[in-house]
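[job 4471] stage=fold_predict status=RUNNING
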Amino acid sequence: MAATTPPSTVSPSSPPASSTPGPGGSGAADLPTPVTRPAGASDVDGDGIGDPVRVNETTSKIEVTLSRSGRTTSVDLPGLQLPTVHAVVDANVDGFAEILVRTATRDGIEEYTMLRYAARDVLAPVTLGPGVRLSAGQRDNAGFGCDETGMRLVAGTSSTVGTDFQVVTTPLQLTLEGLVTAGQGTTTQMPASGANSQFRASCGVFS
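[job 4471] inference complete, writing structure tokens
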């Protein structure tokens, strides 16, 4: 099944900041220094205070009120399938929390989009690099997760009798260019009962 992440456009709902929007991340020159690494709960702009994140179901926008400036910024997600869930978590442990949004569920497979703090008062979608797909579900034996070490992609291949799986876990890196693989994956042999629990989205708390 091919990835079908809907196109996204950035549309600040208040006057844009003076800085030029960039690809974002802690390495971007146009971002402030984060207060802690990883970021605190829901801290999108890295100032140590949680930022309210809302899904506007009427306009299919993800809206964030940034505590650093008090401004509200938003990202359009055309084709967003409702109802949806989202999580706010510092997936790459750089001091700025990313937003993961479930954009669609089809045939038991969930598709997700990641948004990041790209510049002061600007939120932007993250580009997925070659071979990277933010999806989860047992039908495709795919998932992704993150913890204090960063983000990872999970993919499984079942045996011919379906009793066990080879599960490959590949580290991901959120760079200025987007979300890309970071080195070779590790392979683990496990029974189907254990493997199936890997094929889900396990980054932060989705609600």
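[job 4471] summary: The chain has a mean pLDDT of 86.
[job 4471] exit 0
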